[in-house]
Specification:
Blueprint: E1 8-22, E2 28-39, E3 42-50, H1 53-59, E4 68-84, E5 87-105
Parallel strand pairs: 3-5
Antiparallel strand pairs: 1-2, 1-4, 2-3, 4-5
């Protein structure tokens, strides 16, 4: 009988940060930070390393912040607290750490539409003299 692997996850999220680092054996590696929404008001941060396809896509400018990414990975750690001034403080967004097994690219963020520049309007002075309309109201002297 085989049992399911409960540590394997498939997550869809948007890329929040991309950083290239050097590993201990002097190889380049890409640290990917992904935001994954688990409910309408709760989001988690997912971090993982990749040194092959995602790093190549990043160096070729095919992987950008805000892009959707689907990741299949094995859960290696969860972090929900950190130490601040010797006080245990909860993170605003719990952090999952994954060993990335597979990924699929999603849509990139659309560039914001630039508003069309409005033409500069200059006041035009009339060459005709303004006509004064007579009034029937009394004028105080």
């Amino acid at each position: 009988m085989s049992y399911p692997d409960l540590q394997q996850l498939t997550l869809v999220g948007r890329i929040a940060a991309l950083t290239v680092i050097k590993t201990e054996d002097e190889r380049d590696c890409l640290v990917v930070t992904l935001y994954h929404r688990i409910t309408t008001d709760a989001t988690i941060t997912v971090k993982f390393l990749n040194s092959n396809g995602l790093l190549t896509a990043y160096t070729n400018n095919n992987l950008v912040i805000g892009q959707e990414l689907t990741v299949v990975g094995k859960l290696t750690g969860i972090r929900a607290f950190y130490m601040k001034d010797d006080v245990l403080t909860p993170l605003k967004q719990p952090e999952f750490q994954l060993k990335c097994l597979d990924y699929a690219f999603g849509s990139k963020p659309q560039p914001k539409a630039q508003p069309e520049p409005t033409p500069e309007v200059t006041p035009v002075t009339s060459r005709k003299k303004a006509k004064v309309e007579p009034t029937l109201e009394p004028v105080a002297f």
